[in-house]
Specification:
There is one protein chain. This protein is α+β, with helices and mostly antiparallel strands. The protein has one domain (about 15-130). Helix content is about 45%, strand content about 25%. It has two helices and four strands, in the order ααββββ. It has helices at about 1-10, 15-65; strands at about 75-80, 85-95, 105-115, 125-130. The protein has a four-stranded antiparallel sheet. A hairpin with a 7-residue loop joins strand 1 and strand 2. The termini are far apart.
C-alpha cells in the first residue's frame, strides 16, 4: 500500500522537464509580444513625426511664398514652443537649365528640410520650384 501512495504523490506534481518546457514556451511568447510592442511604438513615433512634419513644411513654404520673392535667401530656425524639437532649414538655389532657354533665369529651387531633434534620423524634405524676379 505504501507503493500505491508513493506513486499517487509522484504523479500529482510536475517534473523538472515539464516545468522547463513550460518556461521555454512562456519566454518565447514574451519575446514575440515585447518585440511586437517595441516595433509598434517605433512605427507610431515615425508616423507622428511624418504627419507633423508634412503640415509644418506646408506652413513654412506658404510663409516663404507669401513673402517678397526678392528677399529669398537660405535660412533656418525652429517652430517655437508649439512644436518643441522641430527645426527647419531652407536653401535657395538656381534651378537647373530647362527649355526654353532663359526660363531658368527666373526659376528658383527651394529646398526645405524639417527635422526632429539633433542628429535625428527623422527628416522630411520638400522641394519647390518658383519664379523669382531677377533684377540686373
Amino acid at each position: 500500500m505504501t507503493l500505491f501512495c508513493a506513486t499517487k504523490n509522484r504523479r500529482a506534481g510536475f517534473t523538472l522537464l515539464e516545468v522547463m518546457f513550460a518556461l521555454a514556451i512562456i519566454a518565447a511568447t514574451l519575446v514575440v509580444v515585447l518585440g511586437s510592442q517595441s516595433q509598434s511604438l517605433s512605427l507610431a513615433t515615425e508616423t507622428k513625426f511624418t504627419t507633423t512634419a508634412i503640415f509644418l513644411a506646408q506652413h513654412k513654404m506658404a510663409q516663404v511664398e507669401a513673402g517678397n520673392p526678392e528677399d529669398l535667401s537660405a535660412d533656418s530656425g525652429d517652430f517655437g514652443e508649439d512644436f518643441p524639437g522641430y527645426h527647419w532649414e531652407l536653401t535657395v538655389n538656381d534651378a537647373p537649365s530647362v527649355e526654353p532657354e532663359g526660363v531658368s533665369d527666373y526659376l528658383g529651387q527651394l529646398d526645405l528640410t524639417v527635422s526632429w531633434g539633433e542628429d535625428s534620423p527623422y527628416k522630411y524634405s520638400v522641394r519647390l520650384y518658383t519664379f523669382v524676379a531677377k533684377t540686373d
